[in-house]
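LOG
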Amino acid sequence: MIRTTRIRVFLTGVGGQGTLTATKVLAQAALDEGLDVTAGEVHGMAQRGGVVESTVLIGGYQSPRIAHGEAHLLLGFEPLETLRALPYLAPGGIVVSSSEAIMPMSVARGKESMPPFEDIEALARACAEAVHFVPAISLGVQAGASQAANMILLGALCAVGRMPFGLSRLAETIKTTMAPRLHDVNIKAIQLGAQAVCVDNSDK
């Protein structure tokens, strides 16, 4: 896959997962690389569990909006939200998503049911050029904190080869935007996320 300096990334998850933090780090990394960046919060809920959607557009886009069929990369922090966001994916787009679900309140209360993960994965593969599901929460724990799942996904995103920068830029941005006590955990997280994608590729 060839890296490009003009790309649209659609991010989706639920409140409490650090989706907006990941958006800010991704946008800042592009800025640190000297690239033009437009970013925005499409839909956000302050309370834990609410849907959060955001965008990062790199390469001179004027609007932060991404319409259906325009996202080159879909970064999903929760598989059900990844499923809901598939219409945003452009032809030839790539999905990078957590494989670990966070049960919505309606499901926890027995009012609704979630589709099996296998069905979500199959639908994603039918829409995308490539799909990478990684156990982001579990890998975050391995890095040192479950909250680092968002950085696991950023590392995985960089590893698919479409972003105009790699892990070294992401690591430098983490050092300049986060408190020093968070550096080691989050840098380890992006490395584990990248490794997960490399393993995924080697299995095919």
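LOG (cont.) second protein
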Amino acid sequence: MKKLKFFNKIMFLVNSLAAFLLLISYLLPYLPPKSFATLSVLSLGVPLLILLNILFFIYWVLQVKKQMLLSLVVLILGWSYLSSMYKFSSSKKVENENNISVMSYNVRLFNIFEWLPNKTVKADITELIKKEQPDILCLQEYRTKDPVELNGYYGYNTTFNNAVKRGQALFSKFPIINSGSLEFSGTSNNVIFADIVKAKDTIRIYNVHLQSSGVNTDVEILKKETSGQLFKQVSKTFKAQQTQVELFLKHKSKCPYKTIVTGDFNNTAYSYIYKEIKGDDLVDTFEEAGNGFGKTYDFKFFPLRIDFILVDESFTVNGFKTFDNKLSDHYPIKATIALD
């Protein structure tokens, strides 16, 4: 440190802070938001912290400085975080006659409030679904007042008592023999489920939409918010999410079938929320067969993956795709799986 020039001393101080915060973030999946609400907010910034530490590592390498070891060690300690954010391997695609395709998509009410200038969002989303023909389709923020017309699917959806009639929807090419909804108090978010039959197997599908922070990601709007206000809002959201997840896990624990959990978690793979939902018995299909950043949310500052398809370990993951269709503030994802 003494041999560093003044500018590099400042750089190393910033590097040390970024490394320390990333190191602390490795504990976040084990810290319940109800007890560590403010600290849990850090999980949203993990992708940025990873990118910063990579940049600092490259910076010191180019200068042949031993300070490169700081970020290198922290990144190695969190290698699973790196693989969760970015998959270096190419997308896996295995053809199998037993394959089942599962698509999840937060459609943001088909753009009825014209967040996007595109006037044909609903038609474009419908066309995408018809082109991809997923065997199982889970939609969040689905406008039940103006449903999508899909042939060849069994369907189940929930409607909330509000002006736009929004909820979640689940469609299946396989017969649905049971379905229901897990209602969360004081919110329009919820979880719906359906039991489907494929050949001799019954499979439980959960379509999850956890509490949203309600924070507008528009840069100009964010500038008007104080950091205290943002932290308070997100902390409150994560506490609500924990309550919602506890309700979901209680319901899931009674399920006798192989399970698929899809949807918009409104949280990252570095969070307590994700860890609890994934548990020890589910596999993240992106980590198994995806590639690249796997970005699922249109966040301006760094790639965010907050939409997931998690499947029982009994399934083999034969493919995963993240679409780049700009028809919502989320991007659709699709996994291809097969029962062993």
